[in-house]
Write a structure and sequence with these properties.
Pseudouridine synthase, four-stranded antiparallel β-sheet, disordered C terminus, Structural Genomics Hypothetical 15.5 Kd Protein In mrcA-pckA Intergenic Region, Chain A, nine-stranded mixed β-sheet, alpha+beta, 15 strands, 17% helix, 3 domains, disordered N terminus
Length: 341
């Protein structure tokens, strides 16, 4: 058995402390240590949690983002911006769910707009996890106690189909499908652009923005591989908007929003990535939308217990359906329902 971690108040932080910035210089006897292992030891926090911080761009080496597997050198300056401690527990809440399928292994739901997937600072209640705990007798207990059953996430402002696991075995099987890119996912996005191309592919790594750490970007030195295919489903020239069918082949944070924006096709209503390049701006009178106009319309996967291929689709959320109707009033000829989407 290894020796217990020795906590030094100059070197370690209590994992239950509130958020803050913590820095240290790598010592000679720490040469060659993995970044995630070293930070885990220094801040007395589980290595899995530290890896999440690193993936979120909260840990830097010499003022630059780094991978969890990086081998550090003496004199390296490591800085960790430790987030505020999230709620310590998650409790069942009687929240209605739009259930598309359910059995003893998993549950497929249509997540509404505005619902956060799991508790986090500022969102301790009212989440999908709170609703699932009330509805399901069992959910897969994973490393993070705030995310039971959660296999993948949708942003708060994104509506659409999701799957959650009820057992550890099912969670592992579904997670592997996402990791191996054997999940079929299709989204609808309404973008403020009228591109000349009818389809395209974005193959660009995504990582934390160099200056704004809350944003993701394709302009990063330590991005993770990301690929997105897109196809125009309908054009609304009077409003300068296109309805786009999107197929993300990987699952990076904000991937669709970042990739489309990088191509001059920002998603309508996106407050973070919604600025348009001047040369790409669509024509017409702008129709406002209150959240990113993005909907996860299809999810296909192999059932871990039966081996059956399952496929679920959901219609546009009510606010997006109203938005599309407003667009169609201006351009009735280019009705999206008449396209081959």
């Amino acid at each position: 058995m290894s020796d217990p971690i020795q906590e030094d108040e100059d070197l370690a932080i209590d994992a239950e402390s509130p958020g803050g910035e913590f820095s240290f210089d790598v010592a000679e006897d720490e040469r060659g240590r993995r970044l995630d292992a070293l930070v885990s030891e220094r801040v007395a926090t589980a290595r899995a949690q530290v890896r999440r911080w690193i993936d979120d761009g909260l840990v830097e080496v010499n003022e630059r983002p780094a991978r969890a597997s990086r081998k550090v050198s003496p004199g390296d300056r490591v800085t960790a911006r430790i987030p505020e401690t999230p709620p310590s527990g998650v409790f069942p809440e009687p929240i209605d769910l739009d259930i598309l399928f359910e059995d003893d292994s998993l549950i497929v739901i249509n997540k509404p707009t505005g619902m956060v997937v799991h508790p986090a600072p500022g969102h301790a209640t009212g989440t999908l996890v709170n609703a699932l705990l009330h509805h399901c007798a069992e959910l897969a207990q994973v490393d993070d106690p705030l995310r039971p059953g959660i296999v993948h996430r949708l942003d708060r402002g994104t509506s659409g189909v999701m799957v959650a696991a009820k057992t550890i075995a099912v969670h592992q099987h579904l997670s592997k499908q996402f990791h191996d890119h054997t999940i079929d996912r299709t989204y609808w996005a309404f973008v403020r652009s009228l591109p000349s191309a009818e389809s395209g592919e974005v193959d660009a790594p995504i990582g934390r923005h160099a200056r704004d750490r809350k944003r993701m970007s394709v302009r990063t030195e330590n991005g993770r591989p990301a690929r997105t295919r897109w196809r125009i489903a309908a054009r609304f020239p009077s409003s300068g908007i296109c309805k786009v069918e999107v197929h993300p082949e990987t699952g990076r944070t904000h991937q669709i929003r970042v990739h489309l924006s990088s191509q001059g096709m920002p998603i309508a209503g996106d407050p973070v990535y919604g600025r348009q390049r001047k040369e790409k701006r669509g024509r017409g009178v702008k129709i406002e939308f209150a959240r990113p106009a993005l909907h996860a319309m299809r999810l296909g996967f192999t059932h871990p217990a039966t081996g059956e291929r399952l496929d679920y689709t959901t219609p546009l959320a009510p606010d997006l359906a109203d938005f599309e109707r407003a667009l169609l009033e201006r351009d009735p000829i280019e009705d999206a329902s008449e396209s081959d989407a």
